[in-house]
Design brief:
alpha+beta, Jelly Rolls, four-stranded antiparallel sheet, 7 helices, globular, disordered C terminus
Length: 280
């Protein structure tokens, strides 16, 4: 159920998600959309740069760094994970109008290689998110399960890196549509079953997805992947911390993003028989 009078943490622990949470005005969301789309357009002809803008926005875009540090965003996440927070990545999830792009039922932490589940995904709506344009759908309480079996489909219309899909049966009748207005966000657990349908509307559906983790989290392999310290302190040193982006696509940030691509593909495609599709 959407968050109403139930305390945020209690709702999250019960359902595995909370929404809607207002984090900025619709006007501010529209302004951020304009900035992001201008950067996107400027790099549309360069496949690698376009991939970095959309998939590794936290490293190269100051506007994204600003959003992921907003008190209105950090406050609810702190209620769940505590005062020390890292962002291990932020990317744009865009569905173009009247296209078949979808996201299959999956659990986020399946292929991320972490040793724990102290992770919260914030989905910040820069446009409306409705059933018509492919908003997220959640299965309440499914976060209480461990990681279940997934199969790789590498479906070209699937926005997930491997087209990964839960192998167990999902009862669609239980699904809750995470409807959001521009400037609102949802939070969900890394074990939660979630998916989204195609965008059948006449406008783009744009969400900024921010992955928050507790600093105690680490890669099972021991590899120190990139992260940004956005609240409190890191007393563990499991991540390679990056400075905030101060200009769009700065040379040093782009180089870090290239390294992040290599890291993410190494971890995210571990055990995959088909690497024809790449993480975005």
């Amino acid at each position: 159920m959407p968050l109403r009078d139930v305390p945020l943490r209690a709702a999250y622990e019960r359902d595995g998600y909370v929404f809607p949470l207002e984090v900025m005005t619709p006007a501010r969301a529209a302004a951020h959309r304009t900035i992001l789309e201008s950067v996107e357009a400027a790099h549309a002809e360069d496949a690698v740069a376009s991939k970095i803008v959309k998939g590794f926005a936290s490293i190269v875009l100051p506007v994204v760094d600003e959003i992921m540090r907003l008190p209105s965003v950090l406050g609810p996440v702190k209620e769940i994970l505590g005062d020390d927070l890292l962002v291990m990545g932020a990317n744009l999830f865009i569905k173009e109008p009247a296209t078949p792009a979808f996201v299959s039922w999956h659990q986020d932490l399946t292929y991320w290689g972490y040793d724990d589940a102290l992770e919260v995904t914030a989905w910040v709506a820069l446009t409306t998110a409705t059933p018509d344009n492919g908003c997220m759908r959640f299965i309440p309480g499914s976060h209480q399960r461990e990681i279940v079996g997934h199969r790789d489909t590498f479906d070209e219309s699937n926005l997930l890196s491997r087209g990964q899909q839960i192998s167990v049966e999902v009862n669609e009748a239980e699904a809750v549509d995470a409807t959001l207005r521009p400037g609102e966000m949802s939070l969900h657990h890394g074990h939660l079953f979630h998916a989204s349908n195609p965008n059948t509307s006449a406008d783009r559906r744009i969400g900024l997805v921010i992955r928050y983790v507790a600093p105690s989290m680490k890669q099972v392999s021991g590899q120190a992947t990139f992260a940004h310290l956005v609240a409190g302190e890191d007393r563990f040193g499991h991540f390679e911390l990056l400075h905030p982006a101060t200009e769009v696509m700065a040379h040093g940030d782009v180089e870090n993003a290239r390294r992040a691509i290599a890291q993410q593909e190494q971890i995210g495609y571990a055990g995959a028989a088909d690497r024809g599709k790449r993480i975005t």
